[in-house]
Protein 1
Amino acid sequence: QTWRIEGGGWPAEVCEAHAFISLGDHAVAATILEELGAERRAGMVEEERVDFLTLAAESRVVLGETDTALADYDAALAIDASAILTRSSRARLYLDQQDWPALSRDAEELIRRVPELAIGWYLRAVYRLETDDLDGAWADMERARELEPERIETLVLRGRINEARRLASVAED
């Protein structure tokens, strides 16, 4: 805080926000980060604004303030629609909220922008599992496994899909 008071500018504010996060005061940190992300300041690049808003959103998620978190993610993506960490974080929030259409949109966008990353394939597989497209879920899960064979959440998803298939076959009998 001394650095900020002594004219450290926005870099000092970033440092202060990180300190508040470390202390567990996510509300103060999120407010600082949202203010930083709201407008470009001298020496600040757009990617930094995206990072600030994404970190603010993550702090809001910790606080259970999901609507504000989504607004922060949306603001960050309005600055840079190709921000992969931001989009995947927002998609995970949609997953937690079981907002399947929104999850599908972000998963599709991740696959379109970075098909070489497993996260989009994994998220779309979850969406497809939850909407009873078991064959589609399996295909996407397999693609995610090809890209990151040791990713635990994908292996767990494989088990969930297998169980859904088993239950579907039992229901048919």
Note: DSSP finds ten helices and no strands in the chain.
Protein 2
Amino acid sequence: MKSPDSRRVWRPMAAVCCDSLRFQYPGESFALRLPRFDAAPAESVAILGPSGCGKTTLLRLISGILPLHGGRVEVAGEVISAMNFAARQRFRITRIGLVFQEFELLDYLTARENVLLPFRISDALTLDAMAERRADELMEETGIAALSGRRPGELSQGERQRVALCRALVTHPSLILADEPTGSLDPENQARSVALLR
């Protein structure tokens, strides 16, 4: 299998360093090998490649969702690959903004509650007036403020994508990893979202 072209991590706000990454899904022939990948502070990087080449897998390895089978990942001076599951999860929620390809919104929460979800699931974050103001500002900037009380099932694909983007940005993360973050958006909202990511 080809390794992904190392250009799809969106706007890291802190340095990322990957060295000698190795990963293989159990029972599958797919194997990802990445000798070296670095992203400088405040650099915007895109990862390009055909479907199935490992772009999403790489983002999940960098974020610590998937454990490495070999190598090292460092984000913002922290070696994620050396952390246990709980430490990786805590770091991911507090320091990394993730936009998943399938958005991963909770159906029973409103759009605004989904944006603020990181503050509800991590004791390292404080849900205060400043956090709520940040959520409201992001929803305004992405054009979904009027939809704040709706649940995901009442939103279009593009609206759900913008909710996911706001959730990724609400904690002022050190790193943003976005998997096709503008794929469901019209040109106007694509421009809005890219401006926020920068």
Note: The CA atoms of residues 23 and 69 lie 5 Å apart.
Protein 3
Amino acid sequence: MTNIVGYARVSKRDQNPAAQEAELHDRGVNIKSLTEPDIDTTTPMGRALFGIVAVFAQLRVDTIRDNTKRGLAHARAEGRVGGRPSVMTPERIEQALRMRADNHSIVQIAKVLGVGKSSVSRVLSERPLSGR
């Protein structure tokens, strides 16, 4: 018998709840929830309630996922994108490219620009020098 605090932490994200319960049952694992007293997979009613709770838990996950996708699509349609603005402004990019053309190291460029080495590396890899 395995005791759980709540069903939400039992389920694998994309696994069918009925298949999950059957797999656990086949392995001799029964579940009893400490917060949902009627969920006890040793009884037929408990197995049924486990399935019902699983369906609603999946519905909640799917609803959150759909709302997030819709919100991101709406923001993109309005020209807004997520994430932090890049520290590499067009001026810094131009200076980094000039310095690299003059054979400065990435460490030297990052130090002069006051940014991290990874920011410089990323910009330089996206914009290879012509003639190299």
Note: The CA atoms of residues 27 and 128 lie 56 Å apart.
